[in-house]
From TrEMBL:
It is a multi-pass membrane protein. Residues 618-634 have a biased composition (Polar residues). The lineage of its organism: Eukaryota, Metazoa, Chordata, Craniata, Vertebrata. GO terms for biological process: adrenergic receptor signaling pathway. GO terms for cellular component: membrane. The keyword Coiled coil applies. This is LMBD2 protein.
Length: 669
């Protein structure tokens, strides 16, 4: 069982990262390199979070063995018995042999750092580029990242010159490596505290508000009004870009050197626009080289980039609008069914996706009513109280984890109590719950934040390549300082606990932070206290109020703008609901008509076919008669009758008056 736990967690975390990436990314349409790079970044970060508790339990067992070797002891199988205190150092079920964890952490850490600082920024520029060839995209990515990479090289070069000139410093390669790690972790810790302060308050509050049906429905109306504005803006932007594409497509003919670039742009356009532009093409005309109105390749690259962005945004808003409509209809159904006397959940509209028969068998309308109208609000309230308790413990421990005598950090107290009895199951569960809650607070904020339309993680396969790669960069930069902060909260970091004990394998690859004492003894200890101020600001929604004052509409119950947007969204949902009801009524009428008169139509059709067969057989028996001129005359009469029927104009029943005599009408033909 020594390596089984590690292998199981490696496989489980891979499928977890793959599931989340499938929810946000699109495997069919996005480039494979983007999918692989994002999957690798997410996988490594989630793997660190899941494997670190095993590292803690293995380190505690190794400390026990070292204490046993320094005192008389008796070895007996899988545990060590200390002679003086008669304690037994049981080997944990998830014990990882020595030498595996340092190599594992070194590979995972440096791979994630290579991704976040070198590969993913380059791939971001490559994915956002509008070039028509691989060489052109690489060139654009190198130019865009020249300033990015040059800034880091300039800072690192200045630091090396300062160290080489100053005789007080005698730094070696290991110390330079530790300084680089400390610089990366300092940047990550700065961002970590900001995201953690938001998540510690917002996650419990969102679950508490989830128990309020009226609150969720009003917020959904608010989102509908904002999304409709964004949807209209995306449609207008797409129309403008497609108009530019049409002009370019009409000006550049089939034998122009840049026609291949235009065809590449047309392939990225929606199907209806491609058909519309294809009908208006006159490719038989040659281009004239003497004209100067042809666009350049640089302008086509810019247009290609605009097409990719506008099409992705339009498709995302369309999908999000349909999802938001389903949520609004469901919340309205919940509000109606709360007063139901039959205690059976009734849906206004049937689900468009086919439901699983097993779920449909167990999740009956009665069970659905009890869950949605009775149990779910209480479940969310209890969960919100539990999450709020965890948040209070985290805030207290962040402010007191530097105190070792007495130990004030509650997480450190829990781990040390379990360490005395060597209860490895409890140690691993406590460590996993702690770091998992911290990760949820940080990572959920990464999934929630939105930087205009440049970074936005949208579910249901609607996230673009740029946002996926940017999220991978954030995860790789936030996870190492998150793990160091967790080890500091539990006093497993020797820099915090000031104990001469064996460090964990994770902290051993980070090196000793004593090289930079002002960071190890100052920034790492006192900066996390800022989380208290951030939690207070989040609790009173100071950031939301500031954004609302700047003109970015945010959901606030005491705002007049919020009330207007709620009313607008409510009217939009009501309009869409009437439209869907009319569609369903029309489908039901057609279905009833088909069921009622379908047999009659089939019998009538069969009777007509039988009569036609008789007439054809009768005409075949009279083929020898000289009726050619009559047949020709009858055919001409039939054609004249058809032409007269086609030229007849339909009556206008919406007119104010209908005259029987055409001579008395005001406008004669």
């Amino acid at each position: 069982m020594s390596g089984a736990a590690l292998g199981l967690e490696i496989v489980f975390v891979f499928f977890l990262a793959l599931f989340l990436l499938h929810r946000y990314g699109d495997f069919k349409k996005q480039h494979r390199l983007v999918i692989i790079a994002t999957l690798l970044a997410w996988y490594l970060c989630f793997l660190i979070v899941f494997i670190l508790p095993l590292d803690v339990s293995t380190t505690i067992y190794n400390r026990c063995k070292l204490a046993a070797n320094s005192s008389p002891a008796e070895s007996n199988g899988s545990f060590v018995t200390l002679a003086p205190s008669k304690q037994k150092c049981f080997k944990p079920w998830s014990y990882i042999p020595n030498g595996i964890m340092p190599i594992f952490w070194r590979v995972v850490y440096w791979t994630s750092q290579f991704l976040t600082w070198i590969l993913l920024p380059f791939m971001q520029s490559y994915a956002r580029s509008g070039g028509f060839s691989i060489t052109g995209k690489i060139k654009t990515a190198l130019i865009e990242n020249a300033i990015y990479y040059g800034t880091y090289l300039l800072i690192f070069g200045a630091f090396l010159i300062y160290v080489a000139v100053n005789p007080k410093f005698n730094l070696q390669w290991n110390q330079l490596q530790t300084i680089g790690i400390a610089a990366a972790n300092t940047w990550g810790l700065f961002l970590l505290v900001l995201l953690l302060g938001y998540g510690l308050v917002e996650i419990p509050r969102s679950h508490w508000n989830g128990a309020k049906r009226g609150y969720l429905l009003m917020k959904t109306y608010f989102k509908a009004a904002k999304l409709m504005t964004e949807k209209a803006d995306a449609e207008e932007n797409l129309e403008d870009v497609m108009e530019e594409v049409r002009k370019v497509s009409e000006s550049i003919k089939y034998n122009h050197p840049l026609r291949k670039c235009v065809d590449t742009i047309l392939k990225k356009c929606p199907t209806e626009y491609q058909e519309r532009m294809g009908r208006n093409m006159d490719d038989y005309e040659d281009f004239d080289e003497r004209q100067n109105s042809y666009p350049s390749e640089k302008s086509l690259v810019k247009l290609h980039k605009q097409v990719i962005y506008s099409v992705q945004r339009h498709r995302r808003t369309q999908v999000q609008w349909q999802i938001l409509l389903e949520q609004a209809f469901y919340l309205e159904d919940v509000a109606k069914n709360e007063t139901s006397a039959t205690r059976q959940f009734v849906h206004t509209f049937q689900s468009q996706e086919p439901e699983n028969k097993i779920i449909q068998y167990f999740y009956t309308p009665t069970i659905e009513w009890y869950w949605e109208c009775l149990l779910r609000p209480w479940f969310y309230r209890v969960l919100a109280v539990v999450l709020a308790t965890f948040s209070v413990i985290v805030v207290w421990s962040e402010c007191t984890f530097f105190s070792t005598k007495p130990v004030l950090s509650l997480f450190a107290v829990f781990i040390q109590l379990a360490e005395k009895t060597y209860n490895y199951i409890y140690i691993e569960m406590a460590c996993f719950l702690t770091i998992f809650f911290l990760s949820i607070c940080v990572y959920s904020t990464v999934f929630r934040i939105r930087v205009f339309n440049y970074y936005y993680l949208a579910s249901h396969h609607q996230t673009d390549a740029y946002s996926l790669l940017f999220s991978g960069m954030l995860f790789c930069r936030l996870t190492p300082p998150l793990c160091l902060n967790f080890l500091g909260l539990t006093h497993m970091d020797a820099t915090i606990s000031h104990r001469d004990a064996q460090p964990t394998a994770y902290t051993s690859i980070m090196g000793s932070m004593k090289v930079l004492s002002f960071i190890a003894d100052g920034f790492y200890i006192y900066y996390p206290m800022l989380v208290v101020i951030l939690c207070i600001a989040t609790y009173f929604s100071l950031g939301t109020r500031c954004l609302n004052l700047l003109g970015f509409q945010q959901f606030m119950g005491d705002s007049e703008m919020t009330s207007d947007l709620i009313d607008e969204g409510k009217e939009l949902i009501r309009r869409e609901k009437r439209k869907r009801q009319r569609q369903e009524e029309g489908e039901n009428r057609r279905r009833e008509w088909k069921e009622r008169y379908g047999n009659r139509e089939d019998s009538t059709r069969n009777r007509v076919v039988h009569t036609e067969q008789k007439e054809s057989s009768f005409s075949e028996t009279n083929t020898n008669r000289p009726l050619s001129k009559y047949t020709r005359t009858n055919g001409r009469t039939e054609r004249d009758r058809i032409e007269l029927l086609q030229d007849a104009e339909p009556l206008d029943f919406n007119a104010d008056s209908i005259n029987d005599d055409p001579l008395e009408s005001d406008s004669g033909r």
